[in-house]
Amino acid sequence: MTEPVETTRISDTALIFEGGGMRASLTSAMVVTLLKAGLSFDWVAGISAGASNTVNYLSGDVWRARRSFVEFAADEQFGGFRYFARGQGMFNAEYIYQQAGGPNEALPFDWDSYEASTGDMRIIGFDAESGEDVVWSKKDTPHIDDLMVRVRASSTMPGLMPPVHLDGHVYVDGAMGEDGGIALSQAQREGFEKFVIVLTQERDYKKEPQKFSAVYRGIFRKYPVLADALLTRWKRYNETRERIFELEAQGKAHVFVPDRMPVDNSTRDLSRLAAAHRMGLSQAKRELPAIRDFLSAQSA
């Protein structure tokens, strides 16, 4: 029988998960490692795939944290060109987020543990009509359906998945917003000065501007502010990473940066996803003492 893990509650440091689609096969290992280490953050934020990491972390479910980005990709209803042709998206978002998480389904979500957890969350989506970010917290999710539709909205990659209509608004991936996909500014607005940030690209990565801007403006002609946001995201994203590495240099952030990212955002090969997760576990285990030291130093 497994011995219960002693929990260390962390209130002065924000935990932030970047998105990146199936690259979260690697970074979900940080969810697993933090949970097994008993590190319980009171404030956790995520955008896109980072939103899934966020809610899995708050539910305390190491099984779901891994399965969401490894085995689940083999589910025949996960997505593909057949679903895209039907208008359901390259990733079958309604199934992934709003059906599979139910009891006795393919990816059951531990709602009771999520609701009982001491931590709060911030999930960020992007309003395709107004161009504004929307920030959801636990108070916005009194029921599992309220939570999962917001995780879906935050994860809706424009063009690859149909937008989410919710409360009279049209939402897509929060990565289109102010920080390009990493919820640093929101954490700073809420008063945090110390951060554990989980990135999904290697340290020397630089996002390049989108080519064929006229094509994107044509595709999203109904949502011109979304087209603008998509075409300028590269700049916001790179600037946010620069801010993060500056915080790291100042000793204000522990930044988990993949030593190597062996998959991309749409990888569905289970062997590659499993290998990425193992890489993440190895790196997270190696960094765990430094994370503990960072948290202890910040709390002293």
UniProtKB/TrEMBL annotation:
SUPFAM superfamilies, per database record: FabD/lysophospholipase-like
Presence of keyword Hydrolase: yes
Motif (DGA/G): 173-175
InterPro entries according to UniProt: Acyl_Trfase/lysoPLipase, DUF6363, PNPLA_dom, YjjU-like
Presence of keyword Lipid metabolism: yes
Name the UniProt record assigns to this protein: Patatin family protein
Ranges where the PNPLA domain occurs: 15-186
Entry keywords, A to Z: Hydrolase, Lipid degradation, Lipid metabolism
GO biological process: lipid catabolic process
